[in-house]
Structure formats: structure tokens, C-alpha cells
Specification:
Length: 89
């Protein structure tokens, strides 16, 4: 029998993907809610999911499992210029 072993990276990657999916689902539900009570409920759920997602990301990042390279100053300036113009339009 072929048995796969899942390590910390695979488990956390799966958890982060699940959190992203759950967050997207709650966001859609929030936008389609018809009453203030349901909107409030989904807002609370969405905020909690964002906290969980941030925790998982920080765990991964802290262990070197989700590297985030620094952006080059030139690319930052270009993005500010591009998106700054779109916001003003």
C-alpha cells in the first residue's frame, strides 16, 4: 500500500488554501446578504477567518515555508505611479 506522508509544509499549505477559500466564500455570502443581522454575522465570520489566515501565513513565513521577497524600489515607484493615476481618474 502506498502511503503518503504529509509534513508541516503540506499541512500548512493546505490549511492556508482552505482559509483563502473559506474567506472568499464568506465574502460572497456577505455581499449577497439581505438583512442587517445576516450581514453582521458574515462580517464577524469574515474577520475571524482573516485572523486565522494571517496566523497561518505568519506560521509559514516564520518557518521559511512562504517566502516573500522584498520588492525593488523601482517596481514600488512604478506601482505607486500606475495605481496613483488610476485612483485620481
Amino acid at each position: 500500500m502506498n502511503q503518503e506522508n504529509y509534513g508541516e509544509k503540506e499541512i500548512l499549505t493546505d490549511l492556508l488554501g482552505t482559509q483563502k477559500y473559506t474567506t472568499a466564500s464568506y465574502n460572497t455570502s456577505l455581499l449577497e446578504s439581505a438583512t442587517p443581522e445576516v450581514v453582521s454575522c458574515f462580517k464577524n465570520l469574515l474577520e475571524e477567518e482573516h485572523r486565522i489566515q494571517e496566523t497561518v501565513f505568519n506560521m509559514m513565513h516564520g518557518r521559511g515555508l512562504y517566502p516573500t521577497p522584498s520588492a525593488e524600489e523601482k517596481k514600488i515607484s512604478e506601482a505607486k505611479e500606475t495605481y496613483g493615476q488610476k485612483v485620481k481618474a
